[in-house]
Amino acid sequence: MPRFFDYHGMNKFLSFAAVAAGLTLSVAASAQEQATTASSTGSYRPIPNSDIMFRKTIWRAIDLREKQNKPMFAEGKEISRVILDAVKRGELQAYKNDSLTSTLSPAEVLSNSSYAETNAGLSEEEKAAGFTEESLADDGWGAPASKGKNGKSSAKAAPAKPAAPPSYEYRPKELYQMELKEDMIFDKKRSRMYHDIKCIGLLVPSTLATNTSGIEKTIGYFKYSDLVKMFRNNPDKAIWFNPQNDAQHKNLADAFELWLFNSYIVKVSNPNDARLDEIYGGQQQGILASQQAASDLIEYEYNLWSF
User: Fold this and answer.
1) Which domain holds residue 286?
2) What would you report as the CA-atom Rg of the chain, rounded to the nearest whole angstrom?
3) How far apart are CA 221 and CA 199, in angstroms?
């Protein structure tokens, strides 16, 4: 008997195959987009945009000298030491700012975390006593530093070129100022608020005597996802010290996940990209605005559950 080709069955099979292929490509594209977003923003656990009902970007200051922050600033295990040592080993990439687009080399990070000696040359007391820069050329007993071919002093000898002042690296204990950038996100699928940390910056405090600029200086910013990986790979160094129980020290990655630190808000995303003290006209007003901003976020989350 002659065989007839089932066109209808074949069409159904082709349609099913096309739908399956489309779904596969869609899932792959979605996964790739999510991975790209995570790697570019520094988020460790990115939340899909389709699940986000509310998001606000917040910058927080962390003073490691505070009592609640001392466990991540223990002697010899300072988080500033852990981060800078990882940069020197080439294990951690640093960035110029919190946009995480321009990178810094280990040499640039070392330069940012160092200071030059500022007391080179004559002091004001020495100048008042009659000493001059030219007098530095003799040996302190009146003998000139340079002589001519006949052994006599050369009156026209070129003055010695002053050497560059020596540079010193800041001690880890001096680097107690950090900045954290996060997105506060309300996930409508899980019905809860998340702290989605993007990056952490290490700063030179403005109060250090060796920081002659008088303002905070950036050493580098680091993706939070990179920091978590580095903390996990160095459990013997990246320690959150438990002062109550030596058997219960935690990894620094766990300390950030569990929010075992204190911070205060210094900036909330706004059209002018201004900090709170700039908006409200002073440091004291900025602190009050920080407390108000924290209260407003708590109230917003409470209202989400009330209605």
Assistant:
1) 42-117+170-306
2) 30
3) 7
Residue 49 contacts residue 36 (beta carbons within 8 Å): no
Strands 52-63 and 94-95, bridge-based pairing: unpaired
**In the structure, how many helices (H) and strands (E) does the chain have?**
8, 11
Residue 97 within a domain:
yes
Q: Please report whether residue 140 resides in a domain.
A: no
Rounded to two decimals, what is the model's pTM? 0.74
* Cβ within 8 Å of residue 148, ≥6 positions away: 154
Express each pLDDT in 198-248 by its tens digit: 999 999 999 898 888 888 999 999 999 999 999 999 999 999 999 999 999
On whether residue 69 sits in a domain, the answer given is: yes
Non-local (6+) Cβ contacts of 145 within 8 A are 137, 138, 139, 157, 160
64 falls within a domain: yes
Q: CA of 251: how far to CAs of 63, 79, 146, 212, 261, in Å?
A: 19, 11, 60, 35, 13
The tally of domains found in the chain comes to 1
Burial of residue 249, with CB atoms counted within 10 A of its CB: 0-12 exposed, 13-18 middle, 19 or more buried: middle
